[in-house]
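Researcher: I'd like a structural prediction for the single chain below. Treat it as a standalone chain; there are no partners to consider.
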Amino acid sequence: MASPPDDHYALVGKRLGFRLGYIPAHLRFIRETHVIFRLDDGLVKVRYNSVTIHDVINDTPNTCGLSIDAATPPHPGQRLTVRINSNKPRTLFAGPLQTVSLTYELQPHQTVYPCQAIDDTPLANRKLPYGSFVDTSATVVALRSTS
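Model: Treating it as a single chain, here is the predicted structure.
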């Protein structure tokens, strides 16, 4: 009976490692995905499976709902930033908190703050120029709307 090739066990080990979710050390840094939640530039702890981001097309503002687990309560108006990947960060959501509620899980001292946030569309809309502009250059209109 012929013996199996020497690399047979290495092949089986790689297959098992792949199926069990093992990531080799040289690929771990590349493949790991991190989500970073910041509230006014401070890291914040968010409940698992509580984040929803609605990225709607056209003029509808994007919204984000999440449950924050913090010792100090968040306040409406604080800026929420959600980024993915620490290697090459990409912003998924950025905008101020609109509503903050208070609830608890199992015990009254285990407080959770369900929050809703909206992106910066309303802030950008404050600078939209309104009016009728005839025989006026776009530069003049832009300079008027920033002042």
